[in-house]
Amino acid sequence: MPYTCKFCGQEFCAEHRLPENHSCPGLSDYKAKLRSQGKIMDPKNGSVGSEPSLVDKYLPFLSYFKGNVALLLLGLIFIAYVVQIVLRGIDPLLEVSVFFLGPDFVERPWSILSSMFAHGNEFHLFVNAIVLFFFGPELERRVGSRRLIEVYLVAGIVGGLAHVLFMDSYVVGASGAIFGVFGALTMLAPNMRIFLVVIPMKLWVATVIFVVLNVAMIGQGPIASLAHLGGLGIGLLYGLLFKNDGDQKPKSDLLRGGRKRY
């Protein structure tokens, strides 16, 4: 019984029916076409898939963070704090120069980014890490990794600059960026049930409480209230945009946090 090759259209016996057994010219052309489209064919079963990126090929461990960018941000926060400790041991002024955002940010532009991954002390780090661990992955599930990164960075930048421009003092911490994540999620899931310490409440209620507290504490003590409010405002705006474009994945109003499960 003859077999027709789907690549070159010629007929062959059972022994030579496979394209690799009759030097099929059509197979080579087909593979070349796939490569031009960034795709490859599995030689075992003939299935077609995307060609692995350079990152997947040479840094496969980074695939762990696909869909888990929130945890990558969390890891960067801990790494930054370790670097802070090292620099502090060498020279405290070196830590300030690298991580602290201040009125002289034009002379140290890197501090606009580095400051949103650094923290003043272990308690500051712990609180922000807990909030990012629970709210970051939830926002990422709804709007995707790219948008999470965008919210985090823009909220962090605006929040930090709001503080140094209006308060004329130095600031450090991921709070502005994390408040941005919090604000975006508030717009997308205002009725999500969370626990503020041990008190259950809806997410929008917690947001109102945070706004009132931060407005009351502007200029009081070491709390960078303007950074919090600036980041939150950016997050609310992003959340409104995400909600209006309708391009977010529907999820329940149950806060889960943690790593994405496949």
Automatic annotation (TrEMBL):
InterPro entries: AN1-like_Znf, Peptidase_S54_rhomboid_dom, Rhomboid-like_sf, Rhomboid_protease_S54, Znf_AN1. GO terms for biological process: proteolysis. It is found in: Membrane. It is a multi-pass membrane protein. Residues 1-32 form the AN1-type domain. Belongs to the peptidase S54 family. This is Membrane associated serine protease GlpG.
